[in-house]
Amino acid sequence: MLKFNLYIIVFSLAILFLSACDRDRNHPGHSYFPDMVKSRAYESYSENPNFADSSSARLPVDGTIPRGIIPYNVEKTDENRALAGINMTNPIVVNDENLKHGKERFEIFCMPCHGELGNGKGYLVTSDRYPYKAANLLSDKMKKAPDGEIFHVISVGWGVMGAHASQISQEDRWLITTYIKNKLQTAE
């Protein structure tokens, strides 16, 4: 009886081993959920017979806005910067949690140029990798600047500083502004 059980076990293992092999290495095996393996949608950059150009990578419809993005369609001018300072108020409540998040965003996006202290002596400036000096956020001019102006400058840029509205969400730009006005400029 033991010998018979041993034959059954060896035979079962042999069948299992042989059924796991394939002849051409191009067949991945059986699919238990074929709708997950073979998508009904067209793959990116594949041909799509539904369109005249046969492209499945489509541009978004004109005027559409990505989810979670609030457009800031203000030009980079002196007048608009001054208007932003007058008309825009910071919606962020000043508390420890918001200051912490603002500091995190500042360290990610602003510190390489403006420095940890905001004095314009970030790594890119002090290492001579960037030929222009970054603004000193601790200057009297910056201390007098309203929150809306700082938000505007982060959004559309100023001087040699580029626009960051496409890289930093609106809430994060306000958090950075809150951190600059309520922590960096008051630390001295």
UniProtKB/TrEMBL annotation:
<feature type="domain" description="Cytochrome c">
    <location>
        <begin position="97"/>
        <end position="184"/>
    </location>
</feature>
<keyword id="KW-0408">Iron</keyword>
<keyword id="KW-0479">Metal-binding</keyword>
<dbReference type="InterPro" id="IPR036909">
    <property type="entry name" value="Cyt_c-like_dom_sf"/>
</dbReference>
<dbReference type="GO" id="GO:0009055">
    <property type="term" value="F:electron transfer activity"/>
</dbReference>
<dbReference type="GO" id="GO:0046872">
    <property type="term" value="F:metal ion binding"/>
</dbReference>
<protein>
    <submittedName>
        <fullName>Quinol:cytochrome c oxidoreductase monoheme cytochrome subunit</fullName>
    </submittedName>
</protein>
<dbReference type="GO" id="GO:0020037">
    <property type="term" value="F:heme binding"/>
</dbReference>
<dbReference type="InterPro" id="IPR009056">
    <property type="entry name" value="Cyt_c-like_dom"/>
</dbReference>
<keyword id="KW-0349">Heme</keyword>
<dbReference type="Pfam" id="PF13442">
    <property type="entry name" value="Cytochrome_CBB3"/>
</dbReference>
